User: Fold these one by one.
Assistant:
Number 1:
Amino acid sequence: MKSERICRRCLLFESGRTDVLEEIRRHIEKIPSSDRIDDSVYQDRLTTCSTCDQLADGTCLRCGCYPEFRAAFRKQTCPAKEW
Ligand code: SF4
């Protein structure tokens, strides 16, 4: 049986889970611009997640979300109040 390694502190784009990432990108494109955070803040949020010990294999262990999706919403916050 092949064991798969968990990529600690990896966002989806780093963990190779391209199928999930593509699905998330399609959903992000459907977020109304009034609800969507601007790109620079989005990238700042993901930079914070990428150094967080609650991130594993593209998933936030704190809330179970994909930060690459959650961070795209203007009104969403980090469950650990990091952003
Ligand atoms: S959303 Fe917050 S708790 Fe979750 S990985 Fe990002 S910084 Fe860490």
Number 2:
Amino acid sequence: MKQIQSYEAHKQEGILLNANELSVNLNQDIVKEIQERIPAILFNRYPEEPVTKLYEAYAEVIGCQASQVLAGNGSDQMLGYLIGTFLGQGKKAYTIAPDFGMYDYYCSSYDAGIEKYATEEDGSFDIEDFIKVGKEKGVNLVLFSNPNNPTGHALSKAEVLKIVTGFDCPVIVDEAYMEFYGESVFDEVENYENLYVTRTLSKAYGLAGIRCGFLISSQERIAKLKANFIPYALSRLTQEVAIIALSHAKEFDESTSFTCAQRDEMYEIIKDFKKMTFYPSKANFICGKCANKEALLAAFEKENIVIRNYAGKDTFRITIGSKEENKKVLEILTAFEGE
Ligand SMILES: Cc1ncc(COP(=O)(O)O)c(C=O)c1O
């Protein structure tokens, strides 16, 4: 069997602040609306193709054309599809380090290589040098998350576009956490012939469980990509839930603002801690480093809180959760600092 760079699924027990999910489940009024819709779903029939209603619903929420959107089983599937489309044996992707682990998984599953440009500890990097090095290496695809997972560092729109113009090959901007930041480049897809943007309902919309993500690119490129995309990627159920949730987009904006405010408040308190270093974040998590990380992880474990641990490094990442969860996190960090 082919050896693929594997990806470990996240732990699902305890207070989960490890996967950048939304801590609260879908609002019960929305759940009720979904329940009312269920009897009319044709469970015996394959989903209709194309999934026009979903494209329209998402396009309306973010403000683009439905014909610029393709939807799939999480943005993971869109990333995998693009990597499979543009790469193969003898070709290589170019990303930054650290970034999202699934890039390695997909490159390895398509027998492609992956080159990484190491960022500073806070996730920042020299854009011009990044472009220069990538060109020297003759890369065939550029991809990175913005805001970055795990650092939370975000590039400005101008910086992203500089990268897009710096390369002739396709550039994928993975905007899984964009709702927590706001400087998206999806509205530039018609202006740059190599620009692809991926988005998701898994983070700000709290719908990681339904697996729904999007790819946004020019109408022309989306038409081609649609023609080759796997049929029936999204179940009827996922489509219905996504459409209903998207009709409540404004309510999700409120929870996103709450998360950002909590993140910034927490960072203000912990940024000068001495036993741990924290980095400013534009996503729904905060990344930190700690020389004595095992003791810190044990302190979280004692309180049944699961945070993301990067094995073999001194890094960890904490998702911004509910008010109570964030309070608990702060108590643990403050106690650790004071020990
Ligand atoms: C940077 C980044 N991109 C993409 C994804 C995948 O999200 P989805 O649930 O849409 O597949 C994640 C999930 O954690 C992520 O962190």
